[in-house]
Please model this.
Amino acid sequence: MTRIDRSAAFERARSVMLENDRGSYTIPTKGLYPFQWNWDSCLTALGQRHFDEDRAFTEIETLLAHQWPDGMVPHIVFHVDDEGYFPGPGVWRTGRPTPTSGITQPPVLAFVLRRLVETCRETAKAEDRARAMLPKANAWHEWFYAMRDPKGEGLVAILHPWESGRDNSIDWDEALAGVPTEGVEPYVRRDTTHVDASHRPHRSDYDRYMWLVQRFRSLGWDNAQLHDASPFQVVDPGFNAILIRADEDLASLARRLGASEIAEVAEARVAKARKAFARLWSEKHGQFVCLNRVAGKLVDSASVGGLLPLLAGLGTAQQQGLLAKRIREWRARSRFGVASHDPADPRFEPKRYWRGPVWIIVNYLLIDGLRRCGLDDVAGEVVADSMALIEESGFAEYYDPTTGEGLGGGNFTWTAAIIAELLTSAEA
Ligand code: GLC
Model:
């Protein structure tokens, strides 16, 4: 991109972020997602900091203000009423002062917070705000290992596909098949009134999503019970890698801010998780894959979740090289990278949400991971694809990797935020 193109693209990204700004939090997009989402908000702060540092901190503080007493940071905060989204607060019934959902999402918060502090202009102010957030981030990370790894194996399970952030990935098919649908209360989906139904999860998946919500609700959202009571327990390499990286970043930030006790416990969690991680490697696929904890076996599904361990520098140097090779192979089979699932798999669907489409936020996490592992050439290719997609199709929710078509919600906040972030970093 030329210099002028870059500043025009940045301005467009900024106007999307402003359009979706609700004062102290930002909605992902109008219509489809009218509340605050956990990992959307954190990644949004990365973009906001380039034009309003204060506002970026506020985004994360608002999310943390709704942390549960047990440490969980919920996946949605329902700040306002809006009938346009299902399942709303009346379905979750979590009993929180401001309604929230009852599950969580990938913990990118500390990863973002570190970046905010390290690159801010007003250092003293940023450090004070970050210092106040450290114990909260630490409580959330601790919650994961206490509640989602009850046997102390060093890896955490998600109990609902929505927790992964990759809602209907092929990764969940096998474990979801073990979730019943009997007794699911009648419901009306809203997502398919906003966007093309053929791009969204199937009804049969949705019934299972709802069954799990009802099951957890019937247990009063008591996290001490949910793990063992769930027929869906999946160890996602992408999710665990994000948690490990977040703990590394939390430790580094805590050391900088003089909170050595937090740094030590975070470092201990990282050390344990790193050792456990090797069991998620699949020789067959040459990448990491999910572990179905209920069945006690690896899942035969090569998704982008299995490439995300680059973000935490996991695996041997040779394995990291193989992950980069996967990215190149997938790019060679589609016009734009990085598809959310291996395009060579017959189950790949280029337009159906997390079963094939490219997501710019995932590209960003991969770019960071590739650079960390010294795989800069491949990182550069993923940056170039990301820029080409927004040039061609604007700030969409996700993109068809075979055509570059923008799909899902339009003027999407985190897509804009990540493009702003990439545009302002020297390598873009
Ligand atoms: C969808 C995505 C999830 C995201 C949310 C809001 O549910 O799968 O990752 O957080 O939309 O954008």
